[in-house]
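When time allows, look over one protein, given below as sequence and C-alpha cells. The question is which stretches look regular and which look disordered:
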Amino acid sequence: MHKYKLNNYNSFSKGILNLREICLNQLGKLCLIDTTEGINCGLVVSFAKHIRIYKKGIIQVYFSSIFKNKTKEFLNFKTSLDQELYLIQFNNINLRKNKIFNENVRLVYNKNNFRIKFFSNKKSILLKFTDLFSFTENLIPFIKYNDPARCLMGAKMQSQSVPLLNKKKSFVITGYEKEIITKSDTTIKALQEGIVLNASSLKIHIKDLFNREIVYYLSKYKKSNQNTIIHQKPLVWNGERVFTNQLLTQHQDIIDSEFAIGNNLLIYYGNFCGYDFEDAVIVSKRVLYQQLFSSLHMDIYEFNFCYNNENDIEFSTLEIPKQSYYIKKNLDSLGIIKEGEKILTGSILLTKIKVAKPTYTYKSIFKLIYSIFGKTIRNIKDNSLYIQTGKSGRVSKIELFLVNINSRHKYKTYNNSYLKCRIFICKQRFLTVGDKLCGRYGNKGILSYIAENADLPFLQNSFYPDIIVGALGIPSRMNLGQLFEALVGKISFSYNIRILPSFTTSSNLYFNYLKILIYNFLMFNNFKKGFNWLYNFNLPGKFIIRDGRTGVKLKSSVLCGVSRYSKLIHMIKDKLHFRTTGPYTEILQQPLKGKKNLGGQRFGEMEIWALEAFGASYNLKEILNYKSDDCFARNNLKEYLLFRNTELQNSTITESFRVILKEFNGLILNLELFLITDDLEENYLNLTINY
C-alpha cells in the first residue's frame, strides 16, 4: 500500500506544526488516522478508501446521492469546489429523540464547517463513515470504540504481521477483506476478458476476445521487505472464462480471495501466576502443537566472482586449502552448497579462491622451489563465504548468472565480475517465548510462558483458553473494541457463522443497541445449547471458570471469547544472542561487541552499581577480572575447571590497566607497584606490571 501515500511537506515546511494537524477539508480525501511515525508524523499521510486522482493532481471523492430520503449508490465523484454546493451528511445521525425534529433538521458539513440545517434532497449527498479512513483502518471491526492512537497502532501492526502456514479466516469481519486485495500489487489481475488456455504453477496463458494471447508469469520464491516468502498460486483452471480485473492468483496472505492473516483464538482476560506482568501474554501448548503461529522465512545471499586480468581472477573449487572434509561435505564438485542441504551457523556456502600474481621479492627462493618441485608458487587467497552468525535453515534454490561484458560496461553494473551466484535459504520458525503477538486494536504483548493444557483454567464445558491476556491494559488504553470482538467472536464460534458488524449500528439507533444485541444472542445460544452457564443473568458476557491444577472454582467470573491474533516480525530469534567462547580484542583483551562479530555481553557501569548494591562482591570480581581482560587469571581459571591440576589463584592486574600504564610511559612517566608483607619482614615486594 505504499503507492497510496501523500507527502504534505517540502524542505522548508517541516517546522510548521499546523501542517501536521487535521483540516476539515481533508474529510474523505485523506485518512484521519493513518500516518507515519517519528519526525514525519502528520506530514506523510495516506489516501482515503474511495478517492480518484483527476487531471493535474486534483483529488475527487466518492459520494452517495440521496433521493427521497434514501441513499442511492451512483458513480458520483466530486472535487472540493463541487462540495461547497452540497450539504454533506454523515450516516444520518439523529440529533433528538423526537422523530419529527430529525426529519426536517440534519447535521451537515458545508463550507468547511459543521452546521445544523433543514434537510433537502436536491442539495444533499452522503459521505459514509468508512470513506473517512484508508484500507488498513477499515480492517478493524469496532473502530468506533477505540482510542485513535490505538487504531493507528493496530493498523501499523497489521502491516508488520508475518504470513502463517496454518491461517484461518476471521470470524468477525468488516467486508473490506476482499477489496484490499484488488488494491495490492502482490497479486495478478486479468487485463482483458478471455478464456484460460493453460494454468500452471509458473504461468497463466489466456486468449482474450481479440484472439490475442496474454501470458501472466507467477512470482516464485520472492523475498518481501520482512524476509518472508511471496509465493503465488493460480486461482483459475483450464477453460475458465475470466473477466477484466478478475483475481488470477493468490499468495500467502489470501484465503479464498480474502485477506487473512492470523488465527482465531479462545481468549481469557485475567491473570495466570504473574506471567501477564507488563502486557505479557500466556499461550497454551495446543497453539504450539497445531502450529497456529508457525511461519516461513527466507534469506538471500548474493556473491560475485570478479577478475581484473588473466592472472588475477576469482573462481570456485572444491580443492580449497586448509579445510577438512567435514566442512566440505555439503558442497558439490564446483564448491557450491547443494540444494536441500541443512546448514547451521559457521557452515560454508560457497568456496571462492583468488589467485593473484606473486611478487618477486625473493626470486632466489622461487627458483629453488621450482627446481625441486617443478612448479611455480601461486599467491592463493581463500575468500570463502560462510553463513552469518545466528542464521540457519535449508537451501531451497541456487541460481547462477553469467554477466554480459557489453551490458556491464554500458550500464556500469557488476563491475569487474563475470559470474553471479544467488543462494536461497528457507527457515521455518515456530512460536517461542519472546515473540510478539498482537490483535487488531493496538493490543500487543510479548509471549512470556507456554503453559501445559492441564494447568490452564477451564470453562464448564472443559474448554481451556488458547491465550491469556491481562485485563489491566484495557481501561488505561481505552481500546474497548477487543471486548466487543471477543463476545461477537464467541457468538460466531457457537453458531458456526461469520459476523459482519455495521459501523453505524449505535449511531442510527441508540448507544446501548449493540450491547443488548450481543446479550440477546448469548441468551438465545444458552437456550439453544441447553446449558445454563453460557449466559449468566447476573453477570452477562462473563463466565465462571475453574483452576486447572486444583479444580477449585475461582472467586470471580472472567470474560472469555474468540478474538483474532497474529504474530509480528519482531521475533526473539533475530534479537537473542549468546556465546560460550569467542574472539577478544588485540589491545584490551576484552570480548568483542556485536552479534555479527560473535561478541559477548558487555558489563557496564550501571550494571556494576547493581551488583554493588546487592553486595555481590565475588560475582563482581569474577565479571571484572576472570571473565573480562585478566589474561593470567583467565588461563588459571580454565586450568582449574578443566584439569584440576592447579590451584585457583587470586586475580592479577587487568590488561586495560596495563594499557593505561603504557599511555603513561608515552608521557615519560614510570609507575611501579609494591606490596608490603609480614613474611618478608616488612620488605617491599615488587609487582611486575610491565612485561
User: Anything to note?
Assistant: The chain has four domains: 2-134, 161-250, 263-293+433-567, 295-307+329-429. The longest helix spans residues 513-529.
